[in-house]
Specification:
By secondary structure, the chain is α/β, with parallel strands linked by helices. It folds into two domains: 132 residues, Rossmann fold; 238 residues, Dihydrodipicolinate Reductase, domain 2 (2-Layer Sandwich). It is built from ten helices and 17 strands. It has a nine-stranded mixed β-sheet with strand order 16-15-14-13-7-12-11-8-17. Strands 3-2-1-4-5-6 form a six-stranded parallel β-sheet, sandwiched between helices. Strand 13 and strand 14 form a beta hairpin. The structure holds nicotinamide-adenine-dinucleotide.
Length: 388
């Protein structure tokens, strides 16, 4: 029986809430995972922190993340803060002998991601592990699609077509939140949601992007400073700040296996809330996934006669589909939050068995290099930028 792992979580916003949910449920549904205790939640504002601790189910609070890392009873640091803090927290935690799970994108630039990966490499030699939280890998339909592709069901892969579309900042009066500032977020839609489809594409195909050609665009270059947003009425022109990240990113790429990819990440696709979709076409067939129907995978088998061929729906809720056996009977669908429970399950099993959980920081670093290459290609107007 492995010992209870005590968790310190830094950040209590959107991801803090989702990770808390996953930590509350992982031992209930995956009883083979080591037991976890939600020991301490950390944030900067005492009042909001106390409320989050109570609502999410944490035992203690702390306003200084360095004190969380210094605690000898903490085994795991869960990083749910904005990108500008990932490197400093993760490196300090790994050096202090804590396992680390860090939200994506791994860092705000390649240099930080390299330092984090070096720290993770050193820690792994001592049985201390780090993982980056690309949760879409843990959607059962996508994990099953990966298994089908790895088993050769699609044959030679020719195309990957991936989109991640949102619309939450179309209103020019939407305030300048941290996600719109380069020093805090690293990049805009590119790193925030583009990173997910880059990871998903590489995960599905088992192949890295080796070169890219990108365009990025900022449609709204100035926005009201946070606090000035009035929702329905126009904000005044005073109290505005500069948007320093992309609003949309589009790129093509080539994979090491020879396939071509097209990618679109935007926060300006009116009507699209969290529309992540990906299609893979190969010599023997195709697979299509759309997150809004996340329990389904569309599969076309191109080896059967064309009269009866066509996309058919696989409802990935059978006990044999990845992760699903832990949940409900077939056909009783699961949702967004379950992907994070799966993520923690894989992370905890890696820690318990002393096997590197994936995606590793090295995987996160590679995604960061792709993001960097897309930005370089767009800024230099280069049609072919190598990922290095
Ligand atoms: N996996 C996903 O699908 C997904 C979705 C959304 C966000 N994210 C990632 O999760 C991370 C956090 O995003 P979010 O949406 O939760 O943001 P958020 O703004 O909702 O929350 C960020 C939290 O970090 C805290 N924080 C910031 N600096 C801190 C510091 N120095 N010390 C302690 N706390 C600090 C803030 O107080 C807040 O609680 C980002 O890296 C983001 O890209 C991942």
């Amino acid at each position: 029986m492995s010992k209870t792992l005590r968790v310190g979580m830094i950040g209590y916003g959107f991801m803090g809430k989702v990770h808390s949910h996953a930590l509350r449920s992982v031992n209930r549904f995956f009883p083979d995972a080591p037991a976890v205790e939600m020991t301490v939640i950390c944030g900067r504002s005492t009042e909001a922190l106390n409320s989050a601790a109570k609502t999410f189910g944490w035992l203690e609070t702390e306003t200084d993340w360095k004190k969380v890392i210094a605690r000898p009873d903490i085994d795991i640091i869960d990083i749910c803060t904005a990108g500008d803090t990932h490197a400093e927290i993760a490196i300090a935690a790994l050096k202090a002998g804590k396992h680390v799970i860090c939200e994506k994108p791994l860092a705000n630039n390649v240099q930080e991601a390299e330092a984090m990966t070096a720290a993770a490499h050193e820690a792994a030699a001592k049985g201390i592990f780090a993982m980056v939280a690309f949760n879409y890998r843990r959607v059962p339909a996508l994990a099953f699609a990966r298994d089908m592709i790895a088993a050769g069901k699609l044959g030679t892969i020719y195309h990957v077509r991936a989109n991640y579309l949102q619309d939450w900042i179309i209103d020019p009066e939407f305030p300048l939140v941290w996600r719109l500032e380069k020093d805090k977020a690293g990049s805009g839609s590119l790193g925030d949601i583009g990173a997910h489809i880059i990871d998903a594409a590489q995960f599905l195909t088992g192949s890295h992007l080796t070169s890219v050609s990108g365009r990025i665009k900022t449609f709204i270059t100035e926005r009201p400073l946070p606090g000035a947003y009035t929702g329905l009425t126009a904000a005044t022109t005073s109290g505005k700040g500069k948007v320093t990240v992309d609003d949309a990113a589009i790129f093509t790429g080539e994979f090491e296996n020879g396939a071509l990819g097209t990618f679109e990440a935007t926060r300006f696709a009116a009507g699209r809330k969290n529309a992540m979709s990906i299609e893979v076409n190969g010599s023997k067939g195709s697979l299509y996934f759309n997150f809004e129907d996340m329990n389904e995978l569309l599969y076309h088998d191109h080896t059967i006669s064309s009269e009866s061929a066509g996309f058919r729906k696989i409802l990935t809720t059978d006990g044999g589909h990845p992760y699903v056996n832990a949940w409900w009977p077939p056909g009783h669908i699961i949702g967004y939050e379950h992907t994070f429970t799966h993520e923690f399950y894989d992370f905890l099993m890696g820690v318990a068995k002393k096997v590197q959980p994936t995606p590793s920081f090295a995987d996160g670093l590679y995604v960061q290099k792709v993001l960097d290459a897309v930005e370089a290609s767009a800024n230099n107007n280069s049609i072919n930028t190598n990922v290095k």
